[in-house]
Structure formats: structure tokens, C-alpha cells
Description:
By secondary structure, the chain is of the alpha/beta class. 36% of the residues lie in helices and 20% in strands. It is built from 19 helices and 21 strands. It has helices spanning 17-26, 35-43, 51-55, 70-77, 84-89, 105-109, 116-121, 126-136, 150-158, 164-192, 248-261, 286-296, 298-301, 314-323, 338-342, 398-411, 437-450, 470-477, 492-501; strands at residues 6-11, 30-33, 49-50, 97-101, 142-144, 206-212, 222-227, 239-242, 268-273, 276-282, 304-308, 326-331, 349-352, 364-369, 372-377, 389-390, 419-423, 426-431, 459-462, 482-485, 505-508. Strands 8-13-12-11-9-10 form a 6-stranded mixed β-sheet, with helices on both faces. Helix 2 (35-43) links the parallel strand 2 and strand 3 (49-50). The radius of gyration is 30 Å and the shape is elongated. The two termini are 54 Å apart.
Amino acid sequence: MAAIKRALLSVSDKRGIEEFARGLSEAGVEILSTGGTARSLREAGIPVKEVSEHTGFPEIMDGRVKTLHPAIHGGLLGRRGADDAVMAEHGIAPIDLLAVNLYPFRETIAKPDCSFEEAIENIDIGGPAMVRAAAKNHASVVVVVDPGDYRRVLEALAGDAVNPALRLELAGKAYAHTAAYDASIAYWLEDREPATRLPRELPIPASRRLELRYGENPHQRGGFYTVGVPRSGTIAAAEQLQGKALSYNNIADADAALECVSHFGAPACVIVKHANPCGVATGHSLLEAYRRAYATDPVSAFGGIIAFNRPLDPETAEAILGKQFVEVIIAPALAAGTIEILERKRNLRVLVTGHRERTTTGALEYRSVSGGLLVQDADTGRLDPDQLKVVTERSPTDHEMTDLLFAWSVVRYVKSNAIVFCKDGATIGIGAGQMSRVYSTRIAAIKAADAGLAVKGSVMASDAFFPFADGVEAGAEHGITAIIQPGGSVRDPEVIEAANRHDLAMVFTGMRHFRH
């Protein structure tokens, strides 16, 4: 293996770079550098040679062109032994180590006042080119993109050589670094102008935020990755203020609760257990919303995830701690004095997400399958009440219509086949994830009965059409007064006739909300 005699250091993330450069210099390594990195090293008293001096060509175009030169890329790509004669002929000195991390593109676009021009100027060109060149020639060149690896490389140099296994590992890390960087740029550009078609190639700039104890089960590995720059108000942007480390299932359930509660304008509470809402309610206050959501299914609420769409206040926090065991509480913020109450339960995980940003851009959702990914637009379909179609002889009353719209906002977040009973802005019973819509209806009624809630006088929402009239019949048996569903079944006339027979009001949305 070639000895390390010359290194090129050019980093945006300057953590540990002075210590690393000093260690290289003390080992007799000549250091080349550019711009701010060269200045920092020189100020630290470390000998450094500017790249422009090495290449004999000045930096031009405001620094856009400085390392794109044969003396740099030949030094990185030249195969020791095979290309020595060519390198000597053209006066190209080998570069044996490259430490580069790229312009802070993701950090730049995360700034609220970032302009398009500023973002474009923070797209690195020379850096990725050098990293890829060094990684390709890793048998001859050590490439380092992560400051966390500086100490390992210095320790390897102290042993006179960086072994092939470490070179290979660092090369793989380098390609992942440039791939994620390019994906971030592609993702940002596409997000600015959402395509009318799904992309032919799918750049996903995912960065690991958390390494979890395990996945869904202890024998599975698990991690939490964020995609692009997380938007405020999402689970990816959440800050954990206290509590045990988050698990895979905690994050999945918290996301389901957060997405559901964010749908409401009034103060709202959503309690989720095993990916399904088990209680949803609005109220004049968060406390009222919580108490009504909890009343839907107190048994399932035990060990659940609770989400709010307003800053959590001390009174509501006291009520939660006095009523139930909870795994995670998630809210946009905490009102003054709230965290002191929650700290009484040290293991309770508390997440704050910031204000929810409403965006018109079309985000994509991904789901892994064996050997691939399913990709779709996020389900951002919104119901226009003016486009509802009343299909029964009786129209809903104003109060029923309000409850129907609330029920429709809930049912879209319940696993299919989904049935939701609601009354006065709160869930009464929820049936989720059944193979038959009739059984989902029966389960919703059973849960309501177990919680001591009367289904009579409530409304019913179904996430998809009723293929037969039996689902309507099952709801009518328990005293519902109105139904909201997409419609579109070949048996719609039979379903409508059953609703009329029971004097039910029924509206069609023309929109389905399957959630698998």
C-alpha cells in the first residue's frame, strides 16, 4: 500500500479538521487546501499549500473553478504503478489522502430566508468530483468525508498503513455521501416544481437520525431516517424533550396520531394504539378534547400515543397523568409550566414539532416491498362540502352534516376496512382493519358499548363504498342517523334503498380513503 505523503483537505464542516491536519503534518504529510480551510489551518500554525499554487492555475469565477484541474484529478485517479509514467510525464504529483465534505446545501435550504440563488450557489461541483475520484481509486487514495473518521485514520497512519478494509469502508461511505448530496438537490428542485408524473428515477436523500434499539420486534434492526429537510410540524422535525428513547413503533404511531390531529382546525386530540386512532375529538379546549377522545376507548388508550394540534397546557397535562399510562405525547409546543408537570413521569416521551406548515407541493409516500418500493402521492385529498351528493330521500340536518364531516376527517386515518361512529365532534366507536366492512361496523358498535357510549343518534363514516347493503343494515341496527361514504358500488341502488327504508340520510363524497 502506498504511503501517505500528500493530502488535500477542503471541508465545509470544520469539526476536528485542525487536529486532523496537525496529526498529518506531524507524520510528514504535505497538506494542500483551499479557501477557508487553508486559512483556518494557517491561522492554527499548520503548514499548508494552496491548491492554486499546486496547480499553477488561479481560482476563477468566484471560486467555482479551483479543484477542477488535471493536477488534482490526475493526482487522485492515477493508479500507483500503472500510471506512474503518465503522471511523471505531465508533472502530476500523487494525492494520497482526500478529506472533503461538501458545501452545506441542506443547511442552506433549511433557512427560512434562503433565496433560490443562494441555494444554487451552495451546490458543490468540485467536491463531489474529487470524492468520487478518490473513492474509485481507494486502493491508492484514502478518502474521508466524515469528521468522525479522522481519529481512525490517524491511528491507522501511526501503524504505517491504512489497511484495505478501512480504505474500502471509507470509499463506500464516500459514495453514500455524494449520492445523498445529489439526491438532496434533485429532491429540492423537484419539490419546487412538482412533476405531473412520477419520476422515472427516484432520488431519496435519507439521513439516519436515530439508530433504534430494534425494529417492530427485538430480532429486527431499526433506524429512523429523515428525507430532505424536515418540514415543521412533522414527526421528522420533532424534538424530544424528555423520556426514554423512541422505538420503531413509537415513531410509527406518533406519526399516525400527528397526521390525524393536524387535519382539524378546532382544538383536537387523537389517541392512537397500534397505528389506529382509538379516540378522536375536538372541543372548546384541549382538556375537553382529550377527555372526549379518551372516553371513546379507555381500554385501548392505555399505553397509547396522544397527539394535540395546540400547545399542551398544564391543566391537560395533569389530566393525562391522572387518568392513564401514555407512551408518547406529541404537540406543536408546550405552554409555560407544562414540562414541569410532565417531568414527574421521567420515562414519558414528550415530542414538540413546531407549527404545522401547510404546503401545496405534492409529497410522495414510499413503502417497501420485496425487492422494491411502492410510491404514491400523499393522500392530501380534501373534501369540498359543496360537492357532497345527497342520495337519500332525507337530507342530513345541519348538526348531522357537521358530524359527518368530522367522521370523514377521522375515517381516512383508520386502517381499512374502516368504520367510524361519531357524535357531537367526537368518536363513539371505531372498527378498523377488518376483511369485512360489516365486521368493522359490528366492532365499532361493540367498542362503543364497552365504553358506555350510545351509538343511537350518531353518524357513520366508511372509508370506501359499501359493496352490499348489509353494512348499512348493521349500522341502522345500532341507531345511526346518517352515513357518509364514497359511493360508486354497482349495488349503490340497493344501499340507498336500505338507507331510505331506515330513514337514514346518506351522502356520497366521490372520494375513497383506503389506508393499508
